[in-house]
Design brief:
It contains six helices and five strands; from the N terminus they run βαααβαβαββα.
Length: about 180
């Protein structure tokens, strides 16, 4: 399976970073594409988008100043199939990418992956002390349906905290055209 292309450009307000592409995402070429993944509904309910986007509509994020990448490029059925070495190497590659693109915020979705990728075993959800160049770093919960600890309303709440910290308007109540 081919790695998934990043959805990026310089000057993003928030660059969301998944752990690695799932098999459905790798097959379709769209981030967070597995049915049951709550990324798209959480993004909308948090106010990042004016409606729930479908994975095939991911390109619309760029116009909102949002992008998507992954810590590790290799697709897998589950993130726990990745090795710590892959995650560490991915953290180095992600750092270089963030330095090149300079988004305002990097939002890593998955605290365990962040801890391994950045050798930060005590990292917790939310704003991090670490910056990558001028980019501030925030850890969000993984929106996978396998992460049952976070319901969709709870995901939307914590994703909304990032949106507010980033100074982005709440688009969840903007009427769609």
């Amino acid at each position: 399976m081919q790695p998934l292309d990043d959805l990026v450009r310089p000057g993003l307000r928030v660059l969301f970073c998944g752990i690695n592409p799932g098999l459905v995402s790798a097959e379709t070429g769209h981030h967070f594409a597995r049915p049951g993944n709550r990324f798209w509904p959480a993004l909308h309910q948090a106010g990042f988008t004016p409606r729930v986007l479908k994975p095939a509509e991911q390109g619309e994020l760029l116009d909102l100043g949002l992008g998507i990448t992954n810590v590790v490029d290799r697709p897998s059925a589950r993130a726990d199939e990745l090795t710590k070495a892959e995650l560490r190497a991915g953290g180095e590659q992600l750092t270089a990418k963030v330095l090149d693109l300079a988004p305002d915020w990097l939002a890593v979705v998955g605290v365990t992956a962040y801890r391994d990728a950045f050798a930060a075993p005590k990292a917790a959800m939310g704003l991090q002390d670490r910056t990558i160049g001028p980019t501030r770093v925030w850890i969000l919960p993984n929106p996978s349906g396998l992460n049952a600890h976070y319901t969709l309303p709870k995901l939307a709440l914590v994703y909304g905290e990032l949106r507010a910290a980033a100074g982005l308007p709440d688009l969840s109540s903007v009427p769609s055209e």
